[in-house]
Specification:
2 helices; three-stranded antiparallel β-sheet; globular
């Protein structure tokens, strides 16, 4: 599982989410992550496909759900 690192290097999944980049990878398949979910103070990263696949189960227990999958459509318009 991935975690958000603060300036002092400590992991803080409650920190304000940064924009996901190409370096952020899906925990399920390794593709670029567009969705960040915080569950039990741990962070999960998903590609759009796996985020949608697990959304129903995780949304009931997620502390936060940050979805940037709309960026996929922006990339197609450019």
């Amino acid at each position: 599982m991935s975690k958000i690192a603060t300036e002092n290097g400590a992991a803080d999944p409650q920190a304000a989410p940064h924009q996901l980049t190409a370096a952020d990878r899906c925990d399920a398949c390794g593709a670029q992550a567009y969705i960040r979910v915080v569950v039990n103070t741990s962070e999960l990263l998903f590609c759009a496909h796996h985020g949608r696949k697990h959304q129903e189960k995780l949304s009931a227990i997620a502390e936060s759900w940050h979805d940037e999958s709309s960026r996929l459509l922006e990339d197609q318009r450019s």
